Amino acid sequence: MSESEGSSGSGAVVGGAVATGCGCMMAPLAVGGLGVVVVIFGGLGVLFAPIIALILFFGGGGSGSDSGHEIDTDKVSNSVQGDGKGELNEKTVPTDLADTIKDAGSVCDAIGPVVIAAQIEHASSFNKDMLGSDGKKGISQLPPDKFDEFGEDKDDNDKTRATDPEDSIMAQGKYLCSLVDKVTPIVDASDTPKDKKPEKVLDLALAAYDVGFEKVEKAKDIPDGEAASYVFSVRSLFPRFEGIGGALPPDEYPTPSDYPTEAS
């Protein structure tokens, strides 16, 4: 089954057993006292199941948890697997950047502020002074050529700098939306069901953001390996920035490059 075929049947149900195919990955968490088990059906659901289980586990384990912190398991599942256009919980981002994140998340209809915040957390943990590989600078860690192309003086200080968080975040939003325009024809030409196209467009745009559009164009899907890991990792952060899922410790966010894929 291809990834696009599997995504068409993804859904979440709270229950007392784990669906075949993801039980082996979720079993350790269930044994550890998760208190609630999420049953996921569909190809992508099997891959997302460990992420959702970790979010629930570190977030308090649902309504049965001794912590008293209740998490809506359906909302967490839908957030991780959704279109990323949920409402940003401003308490989850630096106060001075909330408006810019929302502006960047409204550059195009396909991208929301939750996606922007999740990408920033993945890239720099909101460190505006971060120096990365290959000349990447600032909070969004854009490649220098992409910042040069999409950067703008967001805060009107007559300077456009990658280390200026507002400039960097707006360039991030514009670049991601440019990738949406490029991957949309690929999704339209695929057999992805109409009601799942927004999620698929987001997946491919995120993959292209990480490894370049050329690789996505060649694969006509999420390329295996690094790109798949990036998509899953960014998506795992969606519930956090919507304020509906427990925040994992920074070193516990999954990078599931070894999760099952069609080739495995």
From TrEMBL:
It comes from the Bacteria. Residues 67-91, 132-165, 243-264 are annotated as: Disordered. Residues 111-224 form the Transglycosylase SLT domain. Keywords: Membrane, Transmembrane, Transmembrane helix. The chain crosses the membrane at residues 12-31, 37-58. The keyword Oxidoreductase does not apply. Gene3D superfamilies: 1.10.530.10. Pfam families: SLT. The keyword Acetylation does not apply. This is Transglycosylase SLT domain-containing protein. The lineage of its organism: Bacteria, Bacillati, Actinomycetota, Actinomycetes, Kitasatosporales.
